[in-house]
Amino acid sequence: MNRFLFSTGIENSYPTIRLSDGATARVDEMEKCGHYQRWGEDFQLVREMGIEYLRYGPPYYRTHLGPGRYDWSFSDETFNELQKLNINPIVDLCHFGVPDWVGNFQNPEWPPLFAEYARAFAARFPWVRFYTPVNEIYVCAIFSAQWGLWNERLSSDRAFVTALQNLCNATLLAERAILQVRPDARFIQSESSEYFHPEDPAVREKADLFNEKRFLSLDLCYGKDVSARMYQYLTDNGMSREDYAWFQHEGRALKPHCIMGNDYYITNERLVSKDGHLSRAGEVFGFYVIAKQYFDRYHMPVMHTETNLPDSLKSPAWLWKEWANIIRLKQDGVPIIGFTWYSLTDQVDWDTALCENNGHVNALGLYDLDRKIRPVGEQYRRLIAQWGEALPAESICLHADRPTPDMF
């Protein structure tokens, strides 16, 4: 029997932000959450939970020192320990930030440099099979280049398309590079599963536009032809026809090596107001409906790669609800292969989307920052024990050494 991929993660975001005094600062969640000092303890907690898969990655900005230059000291320690503990990492190579010497996601020279980094990592740790080359491309491009919150802090459609193109380019080049080292690698592209609800009939067209735009990162990464409206949007804002054709070719060629990662939080559904303002809608459709929309578009194996609730009292109920959605999707024929509570420990300052250094602890982990288990951790441990052998994964997407385009 092929085991279902129960997972958690070590939150490792590291964008740069602008402080109130105008200075720029790097936000490193692994530092804020104490992981650099307590990584051995954190890995033991993963084992105590009965979890065999961990979304985890080295701090990219500290590791990639320059073209062809890497500092593997922290990675050597941590990944060697993961191997000893038989924890399978789903390696997160870029999570919302780049090294200072790269600049930001507007830099067209970054994607091939990132691919060299990915190849070097795969060669150093050839036992690693699962990767998320670039985490949440859509979110990263929106926050960095559309909403002006992180990194380049730009706010335009052209900046967004530039960031999107570079992030997707980096992903596909990295996948090619990793496959040269590990031909049976699998890429679990964690992406935010979004939906936009019109608040008024007058904004239905605008909501439809947002609902097409939410797919762009995966469309480019999986070679899915976009609508005429989205094609015009991309080319009007800097993408050439040749670049678009390249994404179509490369995305389709690499898609058989991929598993679609769908992230869902209570903040993923938004209301579109008459003036175009976006606000939180709460859980209206829920994970089942939105994940099914993504599956119907791409027809790929699915992993629920992120969820949590920043309320320690309500988190167990949220976990149960997400799990019920997983069971129903699987019963209805969607090839769900894994589930993730994200993350292992509480996080810090996500209540301001990491835009302020307030030191606010967000109670959404399986454990608090003192590494004491939370009620949701107790429930997740029971869930894994109950369902670990009862819910097999789809073997075709995990165990075939050389997938073919018609597999999915």
TrEMBL record:
<protein>
    <submittedName>
        <fullName>Beta-glucosidase/6-phospho-beta-glucosidase/beta-galactosidase</fullName>
    </submittedName>
</protein>
<dbReference type="InterPro" id="IPR001360">
    <property type="entry name" value="Glyco_hydro_1"/>
</dbReference>
<dbReference type="GO" id="GO:0004553">
    <property type="term" value="F:hydrolase activity, hydrolyzing O-glycosyl compounds"/>
</dbReference>
<dbReference type="GO" id="GO:0005975">
    <property type="term" value="P:carbohydrate metabolic process"/>
</dbReference>
<dbReference type="Pfam" id="PF00232">
    <property type="entry name" value="Glyco_hydro_1"/>
</dbReference>
<dbReference type="InterPro" id="IPR051923">
    <property type="entry name" value="Glycosyl_Hydrolase_39"/>
</dbReference>
<dbReference type="InterPro" id="IPR017853">
    <property type="entry name" value="GH"/>
</dbReference>
